[in-house]
Amino acid sequence: MPSPADQRGLLGLARSSAIAGGAVVANGLLSAAVLAVCAAMGQTAQIAAYTVVTSALAFVQIGLAGGSAMLYLNGTEPQRALVRAQWTLVVVPGLLLGAVAVGAFYAGRGYDPSALAAAGVVALGNALAQLQIADFTRRMRFLANALLQCGSKAASLLLVVAGVPLTVALAVAGLAQLAAGELVLGKDGSLRRQIFPRYSMLRDVAAAYRAGGPLFGYAAGDLYVARAGTVALSLVAGPAVMGSFGAVAAAYQAIGGVVQSALQVPMIARARARLGIGYSHHPAWFAVAVALACAVPMAAVVSVLAPVLTRTVLSLPHPGAAGWLALFMLALPFMAVTRALLFDWIGDAHYGRATRAFALLAAVLTVCVAVGVPAFGAAGAAEATAAAEALTLAVLLVARARRV
């Protein structure tokens, strides 16, 4: 039986998990509102520029930064200093060059150059915000972080309603969020440290890549698992199917993002206890309980409402969209428990173990996609996700039981 102090600690972690997950829901709803208003106002060129630039630079960021944002959140103070050097000398300049290259490429394909430039600013701001969000999370300041993120998105919505182009509105609101966040964090904010490079930082960059090597594999695996089914389906399906499937897959990723945001709370609590900057005496099952408490109700509700969501809310033309969404919801509880185990390992600094688990998931998903997509198309891609998550979780639980 937990002591009264431990019970209060568990309630505090549960409350923080609810705040973190709720912030993602609110931010997602505001983002949907922004896009809906832009579409109604005819800003389709702005939406297109935002989509292509942010998607392309996401891959650039993975290549340059890898899992450094996760290391910045969970690592020691010397490791966090290495990450700041890495971002100062490599990641930020690389993203700037990437934004110029991507903008030039798509400008040649008929996209609005000013929208592409503003979208590049948005992508760079989003990248820098990852370190700032990590600073708030490491300090367990989830409410302040939620208010900043949702306030920024609400401000962009107001700007769009006032007639400001989408990319400009997001850029202005994002930069204002960064400035406000630095004011709240004070002198310890990530953007205030090591603004001017030092010679010794060149050695720090190499050390940062060595320290974050295992988490680079984790980040790459995360991106692969999120995109593999969609990319494989695009090789055999036409635009009509891909339009509907893409919306369903995006909805699954968004719902999964809510779960993973809630799971960051017990993860950072374990990291703080390990680093001696906080106390957390929650049992090993707590993260799994958070995962199931978030995932099971959402999966059940979305599965029941899938026909309404796909036909009425999303207005998807393909008749199989509701079934695809239900299959993705079947995967959600398995995904949630798997990520709970992985996040606990990361919180305990077992980065290699978490990366190997993601490599296993990627390998199993590859086999399932190779079998399911050619045979069943879009339904096969959704089934592959559910099967891969379930099989990987079974393997991890057996390995965990043997280790104990």
TrEMBL record:
Taxonomic superkingdom: Bacteria
Keywords from the UniProt entry: Membrane, Transmembrane, Transmembrane helix
Chain ranges passing through the membrane: 18-42, 48-73, 85-108, 114-134, 155-180, 240-263, 284-309, 321-342, 354-373, 379-399
UniProt key word Membrane: yes
Coiled-coil region list: none
Protein name in the entry: Polysaccharide biosynthesis protein
Origin species: Dactylosporangium darangshiense
